[in-house]
Amino acid sequence: MRLLEKASDAEMIHSNPSSKIYLDIVEKLRNMIEADGLLPGDRIPSERELAERLNVGRSSVREALRALELLGLIETRRGEGTFIKDFQEHRLVELLGAFFLQNPQIQSNLLETKYLIEMDCIRTIIAYCSEADLDILLKWAAQSGFDDESFFQKIAELNRNKLLERIWRIINSYAKASYAPAQAIPLEGYINLIQALKERNENKARSIYYHSIRKLSTDT
Predict the structure, then answer these.
(1) Distance CA 170, CA 97 (A)
(2) Which CB contacts under 8 angstroms, 24+ apart, belong to 138-145?
(3) What's the angle, vertex CA 60, arms to CA 56 and CA 66, rounded to 5?
(4) What is the pTM of this model?
(5) Are 97 and 174 in contact, with CB atoms under 8 Å apart?
(6) pLDDT, position 98
(7) In a 3-state reduction of DSSP, which class is residue 83?
(8) Angle at 92 between CA 172 and CA 3, to 5 degrees
């Protein structure tokens, strides 16, 4: 199911008179998942346990879980329990963004944060990436039809800081949920950036990234 179809489901829920109760429970569930350190694939507490922990009625928990399952955020396995679905496969982060990224200030900071993380990945690659891996990246870029997201996913994966890669994936998912797709950038800009990485020239890479790819006139 496409994100727009799921977003329509979310809007339908939001328009329901009981939407505030639903969103309150979703917010409490999110906080509980973070506090418990649960990850995609982990089992969440039972309906009864959730009602006790969240201090809400079991019927309200049941309806919230049913809606979350409809949206593809969780899944119920007969005889096993309810589990968090994989956020990449099922776009969990994007869907949650529709609920929690309502603050205009947060939305305005998304792209700035994404750009800062991408530039940090570029710096890490310049400092630590092998010449062989950069050659593979250059060959991939020269032979592949790719978009901006695919290119910077490669950049995030190539940097050796796996936490930075994971943060990029999450921020990128939120940005996709909040902004229209970026305009296509000529292939030359990405190739020039890879060449700057191979030259270990951070200033050149920075200039290409901000001016040629991100089209920012100021020196960020």
Answers:
(1) 10
(2) 138/191, 138/194, 138/195, 138/198, 141/187, 141/190, 141/191, 141/194, 142/191
(3) 135
(4) 0.57
(5) yes
(6) 55
(7) strand
(8) 80
Virtual torsion, Cα 59, 63, 69, 75, nearest 10 deg: 0
Smallest CA-to-CA distance from 164 within 201, 127, 213, 190 is with 127
Reported as a single tens digit per residue, the pLDDT across 172-196 is 877 776 666 666 678 899 999 999 9
Confirm if 142 and 191 have CB atoms less than 8 A apart. Answer: yes
CA 171/CA 156 separation, integer angstroms: 12
Each residue's pLDDT tens digit, 128-184: 999 999 999 999 999 878 899 999 999 999 999 988 888 898 888 777 766 666 666
Strands in the chain per DSSP E = 43-44, 74-77, 81-84
Quote the tokens at residue 48: 């009864």
Contact 193, 106 (CB under 8 A): no
